[in-house]
Amino acid sequence: MTLSELARKARSTRRFREGRPVSRQTLERLVDLARLAACEGNRQALKYFLSHREDTNGRIFDLLGWAAYLPDWQGPGPGERPAAYIVVLGDREIAGAFGYDPGLAGQSILLGAAEAGLGGCIVGTVDRDRLRKRFGIPDRFEILFVIALGEPGERVEIETVGEDGDTRYRRDEEGVHRVPKRRLEDVIVRFPAAEP
Ligand SMILES: Cc1cc2nc3c(=O)[nH]c(=O)nc-3n(C[C@H](O)[C@H](O)[C@H](O)COP(=O)(O)O)c2cc1C
Asked: Fewer CB atoms near the end CB (10 Å): N or C, the chain?
């Protein structure tokens, strides 16, 4: 797949085929991409905690918040939960703040996942205190977000933002998750003082 195809395919996926395992080696390959991402001052302050076993997965799942725009959906049910997670951490011994670095690393992971036939979702709604306690994550590490991963168990389609400008994603009658994206001409701005 070309980068252009991958960028279109790498949609946030929230329902998975839980029974299809994701190996630690696959997770390591994704982190290998993230570690090459651009980062402030090339400090490389991000660290990654990997989970792909049932017991650790189970201790992460209930600490995550899913799809705020789908209030009638409580998150993935049994059998459609993520098969793996990457917890993205900021190492405070390397940097005091982590700025844009997690976003760049996260997108690299999602693109790599799409290339590997996996789906993923960056989850920022995390009960960080309980996650820290459950895994004994030292204070040295700031918990930035969790990336849920697995074989996709849902169809996700891009559509164009309508006249009403509503960017909220929705799930249609067939269960397809639809994500409105603004048109190219609506995100490129022009300023009179810049025109010839
Ligand atoms: C920093 C960040 C935090 C996010 N947090 C959550 C979250 O807590 N729960 C969730 O279901 N999705 C979360 N998402 C996924 C977004 O909802 C998703 O990216 C957005 O709806 C656009 O869909 P797309 O990724 O398919 O383009 C997050 C995405 C980002 C980049």
From this structure: C
pLDDT tens for 41-99 read 999 999 999 999 999 999 999 999 999 999 999 999 999 999 999 999 999 999 999 99
Give the count of domains, the chain: 1
Which atom of ligand 1 is the closest one to the Cα of 10? 26
C-alpha 120 to ligand 1 mean position (Å): 10
For atom 30 of ligand 1, the residue with the nearest CA is 122
Binding site membership of 65 for ligand 1 (Cβ less than 6 Å):
yes
Q: Distance between CA 105 and CA 47 in Å, rounded?
A: 10
- Cα(63) to centroid of ligand 1, in Å? 16
Domain membership of residue 169 (yes or no) is no
CATH number reported for the structural domain that contains residue 117 in this entry: 3.40.109.10
| pTM for the structure as a whole | 0.98
What pLDDT digit, counting tens, does each position of 142-169 carry?
Answer: 999 999 999 999 999 999 999 999 999 9
Is 105 a member of any domain?
yes
Strand 141-150 relative to strand 156-160: parallel, antiparallel, unpaired? unpaired
- Which segments within 41-113 are labelled E, that is strand? 46-51, 84-91
124 Cβ below 6 A of ligand 1: yes
Q: Print the domain residue range for 126.
A: 3-154
Residue 182 tokens read as 């603004």
